[in-house]
Amino acid sequence: MGKTIIWTHQADADLNEAFLDLLDQSQSIKTTIRIIAEIFQSTAILATNSEIYKLDTLKNNNKGNIRTYEKHTYRISYLVDEKHVYIIRVRYARKEPLEY
Question: Is 47 in a helix, a strand, or coil?
Fold first, then answer.
């Protein structure tokens, strides 16, 4: 049995902001929904293979439990513990990188 995927309030808010930005840029609800759904669904693999992606180099004092990957030019950061994977951040990857 895999780990439980938990979206933090911040990551959920980030995904909502991404939805609004994409909708504004693309002017297509169908395209926007498809991209956001693919980003959301891309986290499912983390339940069984949470260490598949690289460590997050933008996280200050990363103890080796925060990782990141990109999907549709969005950078998804997540924290891994024994039973859960917490999605902690979704940020447009082409913006200037911000440490956190």
Answer: helix
Instruction: For residue range 5-59, list pLDDT tens digits in order.
Output: 999 999 999 999 999 999 999 999 999 999 999 999 999 999 999 999 999 999 9
Domain extents for the chain? 4-92
pTM as predicted:
0.92
Residue 50: partners with Cβ closer than 8 Å, 6 or more residues away: 3, 67, 78, 80, 85
CATH-assigned architecture of domain 4-92: 2-Layer Sandwich (3.30)
Q: Which helix (H) or strand (E) holds 34?
A: helix 29-41
The label of the residue with tokens 């024994």 reads 82
Measured from the Cβ of residue 97, the count of other Cβ atoms closer than 10 Å reads 11
